[in-house]
Design brief:
A five-stranded antiparallel beta sheet has the order 6-7-4-9-10, covered by helices on one side. Strands 11-14-15-16 form a four-stranded mixed beta sheet. A three-stranded parallel beta sheet has the order 1-2-3, sandwiched between helices. It is α+β, with helices and mostly antiparallel strands and 498 residues long. It is globular and about 80 Å long. The relative contact order is 0.09. It has helices at 2-11, 21-32, 78-88, 105-114, 127-143, 234-239, 243-257, 263-282, 304-313, 325-337, 340-347, 406-412, 419-423, 434-447, 484-497; strands spanning 37-43, 91-97, 119-121, 147-156, 160-166, 170-172, 176-182, 189-194, 203-213, 219-229, 350-353, 361-362, 368-369, 386-390, 394-399, 455-460. The protein is built from 15 helices and 16 strands. One of its GO terms (molecular function) is SNARE binding. This is Sec24-like protein.
Length: 498
Amino acid sequence: DAALDVISKAFGKTQDVEGSISGAIQATYLVMQHVGGKMVCFQSSVPVTGEGKLRPKEDLASYNTEREYKLRKAEDPFFKRFGGECNRIQMCIDIFCCPPKFTDVASLSVFSSATGGQFYFYPAFFARKDGMKLKAEVTRNLTRETGWEAVMRVRMGKGLKCTNFHGHFMIRSNDLMALPTVDADKSMHVDIGYEDQLVPHQTTYLQCALLYTTSLGERRIRVHTAAIPVVSDIGELFKACDSCATGTVLAKLAAEKIRTTTIKETVHILNKKVIDILKEYRQLYSTHLHPHNKLILPETMKMLPLLMLCMQKSALLKSPNEVTTDERSNTIYQLLSMPFDNVMKFFYPKMYPLHDLNQIVMEKDDTVKLPQTLPLTLNSIKDSGIYLLDNGMACYIWIGRGISPQWLVDVFGLQNPTPQDLMNLQVGAALDNPTSKKVIGAVNSIRKGNMYYQQCFVVRQGDPAEAMILPWLVEDKFQTSYSYTNFLGFIHKGILTR
């Protein structure tokens, strides 16, 4: 309190409105360097003075050139250098970034990624629209169970070794992950490679050990050990594959690759990996066992081509005309530590029909049983329907033009709202009627337990805001991208010509 009083007296009459995030973080570092801990930073303007000052980087002319990757990297080495120093003293930096315009997420997020922190991004922040989300995410950040001063190591059995590490931490002594804080909202990814030509046993082992301090000051170690069978037949390996886990790993690799190369090259690398995997499977079988013009997919990997298409339609790899540099940089940051379930929903959202209220069941324990999900295509949507689309970071209620205006009155209490009224609507508490309770209950059920507070945008068919939903119908052709059917044809052609 005394510090706040001093600041208000010293700078209360200043006319200088320029910001310097480096000064604030370095001052906090001096206070915390003896004890470590967590620093929460709220950034609402572009830092334009001091170390780490930023400048606009939105340059469409750089795309498809050798300069493109620089748009997605920290411009000043200060961010990585000082982030590493904060990691050394066990200081985590969480940043809530609420800019009115461009702010260079690629640079600011390095503070959080180097210290095991969290970066929250609210583009074009407007309190009426984003206030509830900001409050909910600050609350979760400060109240979730957290481990402190953590280190983690992954060990492999004979013949295997860890070759690379992906996530938000620093590496010490080749294979020790240093995490000033650790919590359930983050994940790590470790690449495993061969140390020798062959693994000498029929079973190998993987062990992950996490040493951390609880919020009560107890030093604990948590160890997970898994036995993994070793096979010599690649056909057996395909039977045990998990296409969703494979897609998640490829997404994280793409998020790292795009920092050093162009979007076009990253897409080419992803497509090549999928084609190589499926070509290897095709070669396991004699050509007389299947027609030459038929695409052969392993039963366990039928989702892989779809996930690759979804990845290319996401903010990670979209055209620069469809997504800003800040939004892409935020997507890169989030993907590198995003838990598996969130990655899957981000690339292939879940869409539920809400017009048949009998399919929404309110259980006695306050849980909600939702209807079966629908394929993400316009063919699944009817003018007389209402649909809830959940991508893990936000959700959307789409209302067909055949729905009575009374539905909006029953659910939200809105009489003849404008499109802007719907965009500013804060979907929270239900009204006292069965329709509202079931619809709002469905929204709150998908929010429950999520690391992100999902804003719910209500869109009527034909409103301008409908443009937010159409790109998530990933099985359809959108602008210059493939439809799912056409993408399968592209993959099949690649397999036959390689």
